[in-house]
């Protein structure tokens, strides 16, 4: 189980660098006789590296408009400009685009020409962070794999905007203006291969509805969530990394076995209002409970197996897998109770 999860995460986070490096290797031996051809096509505001002719660097140029994109371009960098509009004209010849970075511009929804994004049939990565969007732009390219919309003003998600995005693996909506009403039961319908969903730093009071079943990483930090519904994680049986730091969770808001979920390896509940450690699963490896209201720790009570069994098994049985436990910022006084160490034989670090 753990090996499969880490393999999937490597694909999610390293595919960008591996892909880019591979393309660079292909063109490192480009014949210098062709350089002049690539240079002549390059927009004068931008930089076209001869050794990487599929890339166009137009970042940090003070641009207010997107220049005409040559047909050969796969990777387009337009971040840190003053661009307000995304129209169809610059992309007429750019039918091979895989990657567009439009972070840190001044793009609004009204500034995006209708249908311009969906016409980029081969686009896989779309970055629109730090703009002035008020809703998720639509329609989107059906082949998209990553969509990054962090730090906008998004409060609305159009109905069906994700319904055809079966290849999307990462959706980042953190630090926007989403309320519970923006996340309906069918909002994420169609995201059958989503692996990471980031809705941190919004204005949610409830756990979002109908998270895609294949989600591995769910980030909900810095909201105002008070309650975990009963059996909430049974609908996302592969969730491995769960972050709920900086919310309003109390003991009463967590069902008896709310976090006793075998798929969860990393559970972060820092900066909440807990007075005791909730029941955990023996498979959990990292637990963050710092800056709550916990006064004491009883290893016998929190151990996923009986202390007697844990003591008998030692290092050779199916002992709890907890390796990292953070409890600082509570009201717990050292030393660490002996029964904690007896239960969690694999512990490598305890912060108290």
TrEMBL record:
<dbReference type="InterPro" id="IPR003591">
    <property type="entry name" value="Leu-rich_rpt_typical-subtyp"/>
</dbReference>
<keyword id="KW-1015">Disulfide bond</keyword>
<keyword id="KW-0325">Glycoprotein</keyword>
<keyword id="KW-0964">Secreted</keyword>
<keyword id="KW-0654">Proteoglycan</keyword>
<feature type="signal peptide">
    <location>
        <begin position="1"/>
        <end position="20"/>
    </location>
</feature>
<keyword id="KW-0677">Repeat</keyword>
<dbReference type="InterPro" id="IPR000372">
    <property type="entry name" value="LRRNT"/>
</dbReference>
<dbReference type="InterPro" id="IPR032675">
    <property type="entry name" value="LRR_dom_sf"/>
</dbReference>
<keyword id="KW-0732">Signal</keyword>
<dbReference type="InterPro" id="IPR050333">
    <property type="entry name" value="SLRP"/>
</dbReference>
<protein>
    <recommendedName>
        <fullName>Keratocan</fullName>
    </recommendedName>
</protein>
<dbReference type="GO" id="GO:0005615">
    <property type="term" value="C:extracellular space"/>
</dbReference>
<feature type="domain" description="LRRNT">
    <location>
        <begin position="41"/>
        <end position="75"/>
    </location>
</feature>
<dbReference type="Pfam" id="PF13855">
    <property type="entry name" value="LRR_8"/>
</dbReference>
<keyword id="KW-0433">Leucine-rich repeat</keyword>
<keyword id="KW-0272">Extracellular matrix</keyword>
<dbReference type="InterPro" id="IPR001611">
    <property type="entry name" value="Leu-rich_rpt"/>
</dbReference>
<comment type="similarity">
    <text>Belongs to the small leucine-rich proteoglycan (SLRP) family. SLRP class II subfamily.</text>
</comment>
<dbReference type="Pfam" id="PF01462">
    <property type="entry name" value="LRRNT"/>
</dbReference>
<comment type="function">
    <text>Plays an important role in generating and maintaining a transparent matrix within the corneal stroma.</text>
</comment>
């Amino acid at each position: 189980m753990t090996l499969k999860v880490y393999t999937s995460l490597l694909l999610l986070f390293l595919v960008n660098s591996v892909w880019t490096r591979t393309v660079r290797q292909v063109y490192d031996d480009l014949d210098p006789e062709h350089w002049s051809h690539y240079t002549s096509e390059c927009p004068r505001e931008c930089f076209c590296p001869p050794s990487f002719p599929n890339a166009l660097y137009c970042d940090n140029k003070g641009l207010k408009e997107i220049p005409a994109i040559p047909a050969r371009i796969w990777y387009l960098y337009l971040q840190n400009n003053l661009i307000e509009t995304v129209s169809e004209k610059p992309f007429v010849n750019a039918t091979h685009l895989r990657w567009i970075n439009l972070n840190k511009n001044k793009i609004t929804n009204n500034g995006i020409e209708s249908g311009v994004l969906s016409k980029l049939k081969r686009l896989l990565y779309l970055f629109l962070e730090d703009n002035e969007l008020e809703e998720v732009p639509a329609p989107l390219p059906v082949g998209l794999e990553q969509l990054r919309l962090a730090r906008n003003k998004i409060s609305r998600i159009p109905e069906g905007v994700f319904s055809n995005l079966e290849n999307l693996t990462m959706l980042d909506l953190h630090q926007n203006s989403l309320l519970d009403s923006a996340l309906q039961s069918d909002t994420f319908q169609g995201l059958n291969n989503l692996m990471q969903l980031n809705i941190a730093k919004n204005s949610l009071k409830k756990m979002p509805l109908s998270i895609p079943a294949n989600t591995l990483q769910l980030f909900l930090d810095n909201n105002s969530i008070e309650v975990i519904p009963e059996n909430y994680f049974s609908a996302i049986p592969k969730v491995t990394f769960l972050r709920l730091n900086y919310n309003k969770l109390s003991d009463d808001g967590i069902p008896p076995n709310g976090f006793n979920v075998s798929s969860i390896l990393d559970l972060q509940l820092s900066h909440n209002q807990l007075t005791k450690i909730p029941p955990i699963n023996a498979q959990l490896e990292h637990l963050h409970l710092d800056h709550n209201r916990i006064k004491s720790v009883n290893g016998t009570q929190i151990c996923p197996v009986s202390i007697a069994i844990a003591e008998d098994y030692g290092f050779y049985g199916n002992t709890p897998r907890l390796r990292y436990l953070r409890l600082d910022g509570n009201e717990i006084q050292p030393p660490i109770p002996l029964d904690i160490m007896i239960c969690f034989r694999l512990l490598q670090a305890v912060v108290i």
